[in-house]
Design goal:
A three-stranded antiparallel sheet has the order 5-4-6, covered by helices on one side. It has a two-stranded antiparallel sheet with strand order 1-2. A two-stranded antiparallel sheet has the order 3-7. The two termini are about 35 Å apart. With about 230 residues, it is mainly alpha-helical. It folds into two domains: about 5-110 and about 175-225, no CATH class; about 115-160, no CATH class. About 60% of the residues lie in helices and about 10% in strands. The relative contact order is 0.14.
């Protein structure tokens, strides 16, 4: 007989049944199948745990966004500004970073903690790298992010940027995160069904293997008994 190859699963060495008697070969293949299902089950459990962890992290983002939106007060309009300085903004930023997602549209000021003011009054929010760039341009007296070299685009000052967003931006971000949570929750239902199916198949495979071993032992005991 030739080798039985399970190429679709990593971490499980194909069973080589060449030269084995039929009984041993069947036992080897059954053992391989049980190990294969065990590996698939462990992988599925890890996938479910990862998605549960991501849902938990997204719920933290949602909680931070809801807390910030509540600062607008009852009856606030979509265009009303909400101050995100202090813990409101840091909580959102920390939760977003922990979840590994992009900053929702409208909340870009959370990623731009500095404000570059040009001589003509133009204000440009920047991140830490932008701040360093602006400092270099200010020393050289160059136009900052502009092809206008008349002097008005030179850097006048670099200050802390007070992050803010409109109530509408926060509401839109909340809906975006809710959609991400719903999407993961829907796939979780399918994952749990597959997990249950793999668990049942794994249990059946080990039960079949146990019964097969018992049958082999009984047959050998019977042969030995007949030889006495």
């Amino acid at each position: 007989m030739s080798a039985v190859n399970f190429n679709s699963t990593q971490g499980v060495t194909p069973a080589n049944i060449q030269g084995m008697d039929l009984e041993t070969a069947l036992m080897t293949v059954q053992s391989q199948r049980a190990n294969l299902l065990e590996t698939q089950l462990k992988s599925q459990i890890e996938d479910v745990q990862k998605k549960n962890d991501q849902i938990s992290k997204l719920n933290q983002v949602l909680g931070a966004l809801n807390s910030a939106a509540a600062k607008a007060g009852a009856g606030a309009k979509a265009t009303d500004k909400v101050d995100l300085s202090g813990t409101a903004g840091s909580d959102i930023t920390s939760a977003i970073k922990n979840a590994g997602i992009s900053t929702p549209s409208g909340l870009e000021s959370l990623d731009q903690p500095y404000l570059v003011t040009l001589r003509d009054g133009t204000k440009i929010p920047v991140d830490a790298a932008g701040k360093k760039e602006a400092e270099d341009y200010q020393k050289l007296n160059w136009a900052f992010r502009s092809s206008d070299y008349s002097g008005g685009k030179g850097v006048a000052s670099i200050t802390a940027n007070s992050p803010s967003a409109t109530k509408g931006d926060l509401d839109a971000a909340i809906q975006t995160v809710k959609s991400q949570i719903d999407s993961l929750s829907n796939t979780q239902q399918m994952d749990m069904l597959r997990l249950q199916s793999l668990s049942n198949k794994r249990n059946e495979a080990f039960e079949t293997m146990t019964n097969f071993i018992k049958k082999m032992q009984d047959n050998r005991s019977s042969i030995v008994g007949n030889m006495r």
